[in-house]
Amino acid sequence: LAEHGVKVIIVGAAPGGRIRGLLRGKHTVPFTIIEQTSGYTKYPKATQYALPAMKILNRTALGNDVPHRGLHPNAVSWHKLNGTYIIGLENEIHGYDPDRMVSLPMCDLTRLIYDQSKDLPMIKYLFHHRVTGIGQDDNKATGNQGERLQPSADYIVGCDGANSIVRRSLFGTLFPGMIWDEQIAATNAYFGFDQFGYTDSNFILDPEDWFMTAKTTKDGVWRVPYGDATSLKNEQIIGRQPERFKTLSPGHPKPNEYKLISISPYKVHQRLAESMVAGRILFAADTAHLYNPFGGLGLTGGIVDVDSLFECSSGIRHGKANETILL
């Protein structure tokens, strides 16, 4: 990156794109973040920020708000389906660590990032703007938004998710990897798992009726992803949710004994783009790779991606490295 006149476009206003903007926006490179939606969702989606992610967030103004608003999980444990405790790891025994894991729904994080960055002079948000294609030459990268709008910059960073237009513009449908056979339904609900001896994060082991449950907010929302029959269609999976909750959850609750917030059936992908750099186009987070979600690395990996891009571009801008550091 040159010292002056450098512009960067970030496609996608999920946390990965916004955090990159927040990191860079406090320096001297102008960023435009283009998002096809309003930029917000009512669904919690990802919730876990492991130590590598918290180290990065703590270097921004988010370092105070995320731990304050989020939940510090007290432990992770493994159980049999009948609730029998197998083994666990306590978090509290290590005392306070500013970089320890925090749980905060992604929808809350995106709002925090926007509030912290909206008034920074080097960051511009364009909501309800859809990028339909990407082009580039030796001097610039261009994001196509129809015949009239073709914003250009020195670099474009694709942070527009698993179905990325940016990645597809370069690699088509090629996204090497695999889809696991297992069918998963991700739910969010108010239910007192802790009343049955569960810790804040739990893996329940069973050949058929396996699931995970994790407390994600201070007011008691639990994430409960569970396995279901692979032969079922999405509407059948959704229809079976009360039956599955009764089978899986301690106390075998009826629908009036918990509050279901959301349910989303999905398949687990593990994929990696052919390259995370293609000329003046860069990829990060779900645009670049998809993880098995039962480890909390998806959101953490995306945050680490954008921090690495920030460090590389900062080194180039200050003459400490050249553009080959991005390869």
What can you see in these coordinates?
By secondary structure, this protein is of the alpha/beta class. It has 2 domains: 8-44 and 105-176 and 273-326, FAD/NAD(P)-binding domain (3-Layer(bba) Sandwich), CATH 3.50.50; 48-104 and 180-269, 2-Layer Sandwich (D-Amino Acid Oxidase, Chain A, domain 2), CATH 3.30.9.30. Helix content is 24%, strand content 30%. It is built from 8 helices and 19 strands. Helix 1 packs parallel to helix 8 (297-317). This is Fad binding domain-containing protein. GO terms for molecular function: FAD binding; oxidoreductase activity. Residues 6-325 form the FAD-binding domain.
> Which bin fits the share of residues in helices?
10-25%
User: What is the total tally of β strands?
Assistant: 19
| CATH fold-type name of the largest domain | FAD/NAD(P)-binding domain
Class based on secondary structure composition and strand pairing = alpha/beta
Shape: globular
